[in-house]
Amino acid sequence: MEPRPGSATAQAAPPLSSQERAAPAPELPAAPPAEVPDPTAGDEVFDRYARLVTAVLGVPVGLVSLVSTTGQVFPGAVGLPEPWQQTRCTDLSHSFCQHVVATDTPLVVSDARQDQRLSGNLAITDIGVIAYAGFPLHDADGVAVGSLCAIDTTPRTWSAHDLAVLSDLAATASSELVLRRTVTEAAAARDSELAALAKVSATIESVGALGRIALSLSDAESVEELSVIMAEQGQAALGADGGAVAVPASGDPGTLVSYISTSLGEDTRAQYSHLPLDVQLPVTRAARTATRVLVPDLATARACSSAMEEVVRTTGCQAWASLPLLARGQLLGVLSVGWREAQDFGTDQLELLETYAGQCAQALQRLAAREAERASTQQARAAAAAERLSAQRQASLVAIAQALAGAERHEDVLAVLDAQGSALLGASGSGLCLTEPGGTHVRTLATASFDADLRAHVQRVPADFPMPIVHTATTGTAHYLEDLATTVAAFPGARDLYTAAGVQASVCVPLTDRSGLLGSMSMAFLEARTWDVQERELLEAFAAMTGQALARIASHAAEQTALAAAAGIAETLQRSMLTPPPEPDHLEVAVRYAAAADHAEVGGDWYDAFVTAEGLTSLVIGDVTGHDMAAAAVMGQLRNLVRGIAFTLDHSPARVLAAVDRAAAGLGIDTVATAVLAQVEQSPEHRAAGTRLLRWSNAGHVPPLLIEADGTTRYLEPPSDLVLGWDPMTQRHDHEVVLAPGMTVLLYTDGLIERRGVSLDRGMAWLAQAAAELAGGSTEELCESLVALVGDHLDDDVALLALRAHREDAPRPRAAGPARVPDGLERARRAARRDRL
């Protein structure tokens, strides 16, 4: 007989030298695929494939091998002699599978001792490999990485059936590698998004705490009160176990006065209330050098000095951070924070510490300035108003951070910028300018306060467009433009745009994150104005938070794209299993699959229709418990088991389902599923009468619906057997019904008849009535209309399969479409008949 396309056949090969036999093929991968983390430890799924090879093909050894330039490993292995079964690996000197991977084609050998390519391979003498059949396994990139192989210890001629089964199993095992890659990537994307959200939440909480402290600091009337607030409230905001603020003693520049949090105990507060600058401690070193001092753990603390060891013993804190509080180059004090646990002082933690230290320095500076101006009542009131405004602005930064945390689009960020710019600084309008990849153009978003034509004109412009906001976005240089004359002097090309918008003054601040320059933000003012130091600091802080929000939006968009891609791969994989049905002459088959409206994931519903090696049309409908990628994967395994066993074995539906039950249990497929398997038969007596026999077995599934030619309907409701996967010893039963020409059998999953608040009986009654009303159309119209009737009310996925028998003494109806069977079916049937002989 002629080999089927893509089949493997043994071929003679020219003699190879000993060096050629030992050398690894250059096409081999450098290492096993990451989807199998520890192949030598064994893998339950791939061990099942190896057991299935030995069971179905009747060979003593079945292997799932992964081959690389370093050797071969067996994540799936059954029947190897020791020590190979235990170690699950060999050198390439013992590898037949390397030839499968190197050529990406099957290798089939009846007697390796007679094969010039393999006769010198040590696997023959050491492992007893005589007959070998191996098919390539491919990873998610389509690269051959291993082989699913059957091994016999005596010469053997492999049948076409053997090779077909092995080819199908290899394809399914390759799908396992693809699924693992998909699940791993989706999980990684999900974990990354959750970590990012947690980080944003923690940052918002810390910023909120610092904002509340800012309000408290603004009300302090003395250095002592201010220091107590900074030490007590600061430790909570920073997640520390203790804190202290040390300031130079009045009249004694060589001594620090420390205000220590109560959490460190009264003994500590008394012992360290006054510190000479020459004591070797982090706080005194920070005061002497005006630099940050970090002590991350106990070992570092002990290495500092004996005085530091005493601090650890007294306070119980092993990690410390001391930060100088500076204003215009002058030391105002030192902020110290302690933790009982070791700290790694990562970038985020250090940024928070520096932010709080800057806030404390500003508070001390404001207090010093206020005390110096108390002589003048007018000056004191002005200072108090300025402090209140500063505190309000810092509290506003907290509100800005909270508002930006909810921004999901660039337009949301612009809305926050517009609202806060108007409230804080009296801006008449705002804009965002974002750089595009490549750097040749920028994209500008402006608020509705600007004319629509103007907004459209600057929406996307070259990177050298003569506008301050564009210059800042592309160079990172901030611009504080006090009036129109100043603007035109620096940017002559901006005159017309500023005049048309009625803008006199503007400010443009760069937007950055850790990756670099993202763009710029701008505020416009209808009157000329200037910006003091606090307003500039406020704008810089606003810009920093805006940059973080833009970076978060970009990161979230990338993660959503990755998740959507992973979900698309999984859905494509599931739908690839829902293949078009065959339609032998005078049998009309139609199928449909509809996903639930509120489910973004794939599920476990499936249909299948195929012609067996005996020429019987088989119909399958099933539903695996669950609605995720795991359910879809198990569905694929069960579908292939049913299809493979039913095609190969000349058994009734009940015996096929019983075999599937046993195979699933033996292979460790731990799931529960409902299913109906039906076969259309025609004995000589039925052929003479122009009828057919439908034989089916039901494993806990909803009953099939029989539709007579005149539209009468009835359910095929003999008692169903247990679901698949419950008990491999379950006794299953066949049932029969005669199909006259014009009769239709409808198989379906429960999603078609189940509704919230509606009983199953009512759902079945609805289906029977709807099918009766639709009986006059084709099977395609029947399935399409039923799905349309359900519409958007699907609570679960729906799979449908309809079969109609037509008269055999007349041409096939045009509405049924052309007859359709697989191209290789006749060859497979001849091979099956030959094997039986």
Automatic annotation (TrEMBL):
Taxonomy, superkingdom: Bacteria
Gene3D superfamilies the record matches: 3.30.450.40, PPM-type phosphatase domain
UniProt feature, compositional bias: Pro residues: 26-36
Region Disordered, residue ranges: 1-42, 809-837
- Sequence ranges of Low complexity compositional bias: 813-822
Pfam families the record matches: GAF (PF01590), GAF_2 (PF13185), SpoIIE (PF07228)
Alphabetic keyword roster: Hydrolase
- Domain named GAF: residues: 41-187, 222-374, 409-560
In this protein, which residues make up the domain named PPM-type phosphatase?
587-805
Single GO term (MF): phosphatase activity
Q: What is this protein called?
A: SpoIIE family protein phosphatase
Source species taxonomy: Bacteria, Bacillati, Actinomycetota, Actinomycetes, Kineosporiales
